[in-house]
Design goal:
The complex is a heterodimer.
Chain A: H1 2-11, H2 14-58, E1 62-63, E2 68-69, H3 75-80, H4 92-125, H5 129-140, H6 147-152, H7 154-158, H8 163-170, H9 185-209, H10 213-221, H11 226-255, H12 258-263, H13 271-280, H14 284-314
Antiparallel strand pairs in A: 1-2
Helix pairs in contact in A: 2-14, 4-9, 4-11, 9-11, 10-11, 11-14, 13-14
Chain B: E1 3-12, E2 15-25, E3 30-34, H1 41-49, E4 56-61, E5 64-65, H2 71-74, E6 76-79, H3 91-101, H4 106-119, H5 135-147, E7 153-157, H6 165-182, E8 185-190, H7 193-199, E9 202-207, E10 210-215, H8 217-222, H9 227-233, E11 236-240, E12 246-250, E13 254-256, E14 265-274, E15 278-285, E16 294-301, H10 302-307, E17 315-320, E18 325-327
Parallel strand pairs in B: 3-8, 3-9, 6-7, 7-8
Antiparallel strand pairs in B: 1-2, 1-4, 4-5, 9-10, 11-12, 12-18, 13-17, 14-15, 14-17, 15-16
Helix pairs in contact in B: 3-4, 3-5, 4-5
């Protein structure tokens, strides 16, 4: 308390005399802060905001087989939702979104379960900082090769005559190779979980590392069982990490088309794939409209997720 | 409830943190475990509370040895040094936490939490989050949380060390009041002898994992069991006599100048500290057995000092009341 009071007292008499120069100094310091933030703001604005706005603009343009026509039309959006108002069977867009959402939900559940468990282990059961660092490096090993190579590597493992099928048949557990291992929903989710779990682990670990160990002791002292401590202390305090990890995973899966393409044997539709196909057909306004709809959907999901996570506080 | 420690030992690898201590704390006592850092007092407290496994020996609370029982089963509750309030819960839910863990319904646990907050005069801030409270307020909430399940023994780990001196004295009074009101056994770890003196019925002075002395504060101050206790408790001079035995003499029973008596030795004044009601005078004296000059302190009544002031570097005869000398065993 005295620490806070003393400097203020010492400064007080100096203020009236030096007021003008002091504000000038403050102003200069503020200007410097803006200068320091400028490069990042420039990069962000030029390479993110401008393209985004251009996409939004192009999504309202018309196009035909040969050219894009700068005119205002809602036709692209009408095309996206074509047939969606018909009752009976769902339109292509809706079915594709549902399929992507299904992958998203499955991937989210598995990455959350695995990521939380791994982060919990590293944060609470590994005492030494160095061992924690080594374990984190181990988590990043899958990222030392490119995405495509990682996905291709699944083929000799999961394929019809792959390692898994061969082993199971060799052991006499199955008579015929299991067909659904590769190029199926299963393999898509498997690849997504494999790719994205680390994005859950890191933020959740970060939140957990910040939990004061005395709180765990206090919970134990209050008679909480291990599960009660997990539910009432660890999870609420790890929530920011869970939220950040979830946002990473959801946005990555929603926008993906390569993983679904390769692991689904080009047989499974995804929102990203639609956009990619339209772009390669040079139907850029249609692709832009789809991208804007996707962006809106992802943002809605993020808002919903942050709401959900805040809501738990009220319970 | 009575708390008894029997040959209680804690080893970490090859180091012994607590070395076979025996102690009996009777029900309703305010006991302070006092000692320098690393003396094993916190480890002892944590073993009583079930937060540290016992290497050997027993903790007996009430009628039974508690073994490896969880804190809630022992009837103990702990107040942590950093308070350890749950940052995501408001005061009321912090206090109600252990009731929630026991499956007490929402309405009842909130009512009981409010009653406890009332006891520590925090009811008006029940809706605040811990981050919005001052240190003293956080501590009151932590106290309410520890008391809400009606423990028989409350364990306090340096509860006052994070507070500023003014608040420390106030919370000290408060702790004593609550202890008397509830009639609980309090076991309080501290490194401040002043705190231990002010609060406890039983002072347990620890050093190097052992108990140096366990007695009421007056006995500890009047008849320290060892040179360590005399030095740690403060206000004493430890003097080595020519026959190699050691005595402790209270600093306020030292005699200066003409009253110094037969045992007096010439001593040089090295420091003078004015304390209001008294003056603390530091001396260096040769010929008190030790290898170098012995450092001694005399507390002189301010009136007596004003009548006969001293100057730094001055040499005066320094002795003590023969009756005030307490022979030390070790």
């Amino acid at each position: 308390m005295t620490d806070a009071v003393l400097p203020a007292l010492a400064e007080a008499p100096a203020v009236p005399a030096a007021a003008a120069s002091l504000t000038a100094k403050t102003r200069r310091r503020r200007a410097l802060a803006y200068v320091q933030a400028a490069p990042m703001a420039f990069v962000f604005g030029f390479f993110f905001l401008v393209p985004l706005l251009l996409t939004l603009m192009v999504s309202f343009w018309a196009y035909n087989e040969y050219e894009i026509i700068p005119a205002f039309t809602l036709q692209n959006y009408v095309d996206v939702f074509e047939g969606c108002l018909d009752t009976g069977n769902a339109c292509t867009t809706l079915r594709t979104y549902l399929s992507t959402l299904k992958f998203c939900a499955l991937t989210w559940v598995f990455t959350l379960l695995i990521g939380f468990t791994v982060a919990y282990f590293v944060a609470f059961h590994v005492r030494s900082r160095n061992v924690q660092m080594v374990l984190f490096l181990v988590c990043t090993i899958p990222f030392w090769t490119s995405n495509v190579i990682r996905m291709i590597s699944w083929i000799p493992l999961l394929g019809r005559n792959g390692l898994v099928n061969d082993t199971l048949m060799g052991m006499g557990l199955i008579a015929r190779p299991i067909e659904g291992l590769l190029y199926s929903d299963f393999s898509v989710v498997l690849a997504f979980v494999h790719l994205n779990t680390v994005f859950m682990i890191v933020p959740i670990f970060n939140s957990m590392a910040r939990i004061d160990r005395a709180l765990i002791e206090a919970a134990y002292d209050s008679g909480a069982t291990g599960w009660q401590t997990l539910w009432n202390v660890v999870i609420p305090l790890a929530k920011p990490g869970i939220a950040i990890g979830s946002i990473f995973v959801v946005t990555l899966v929603m926008g993906d088309f390569v993983t679904v393409g390769v692991m689904g044997g080009q047989q499974i539709a995804s929102v990203g794939k639609i956009i990619q196909v339209q772009m390669s057909a040079l139907q850029l306004p249609a692709a832009a409209a789809n991208a804007v709809v996707l962006l809106g959907a992802v943002m809605l999901m993020i808002v919903a997720m942050t709401r959900l996570i805040d809501l738990r506080k009220e319970l | 409830m009575d708390v008894e420690l029997i040959r209680l030992t804690k080893r970490y690898g090859n180091t012994v943190a607590v070395d076979g201590i025996d102690l009996k704390i009777r029900s309703g006592a305010y006991c302070c475990l006092l000692g320098p850092s690393g003396c094993g007092k916190t480890t002892t407290l944590r073993m009583i509370g079930g937060h540290e496994t016992v290497s050997s020996g027993d903790v007996v609370i009430g009628p039974r040895a508690v073994g490896d029982a969880a804190p809630a089963e022992r009837g103990t509750a702990m107040m942590f040094q950093s308070y350890a309030l749950f940052p995501h819960l408001d005061c009321r839910d912090n206090v109600a936490f252990s009731l929630k863990m026991r499956g007490v319904g929402k309405v009842e646990r909130r009512a009981r939490a409010m009653a406890m907050l009332d006891l520590v005069q925090m009811a008006h801030l029940a809706e605040r989050m811990p981050a919005q409270l001052s240190g003293g307020q956080q501590q009151r909430v932590a106290l309410a949380r520890a008391l809400v399940t009606g423990p028989k023994v409350l364990l306090l780990d340096e509860p006052l060390s994070a507070l500023d001196p003014f608040l420390r004295v106030r919370m000290r009074t408060e702790l004593k009041r609550i202890q008397a009101e509830l009639g609980l056994t309090f076991i309080h770890v501290t490194h401040s002898q002043e705190e231990a003196m002010a609060l406890s019925d039983l002072v347990v002075v620890m050093n190097g994992g052992r108990i140096e002395q366990a007695a009421d504060p007056r006995t500890v101050f009047e008849r320290p069991a060892s040179a360590f206790v005399a030095r740690f408790i403060g206000g004493h001079n430890v003097v080595r006599l020519p026959d190699a035995s050691e005595i402790a003499v209270r600093a306020d029973r030292m005699r200066l100048g003409p009253e110094a008596g037969a045992q007096a030795v010439p001593a040089r004044v090295v420091s003078i500290e004015y304390q209001g009601t008294s003056v603390h005078v530091g001396f260096e004296a040769d010929g008190l057995g030790g290898p170098g000059p012995a450092a001694l302190t005399a507390i002189v009544d301010d009136g007596a000092y004003a009548a006969r002031p001293l100057a730094l570097g001055q040499t005066v005869p320094l002795g003590w009341d023969e009756a005030a000398a307490h022979r030390l065993t070790a």
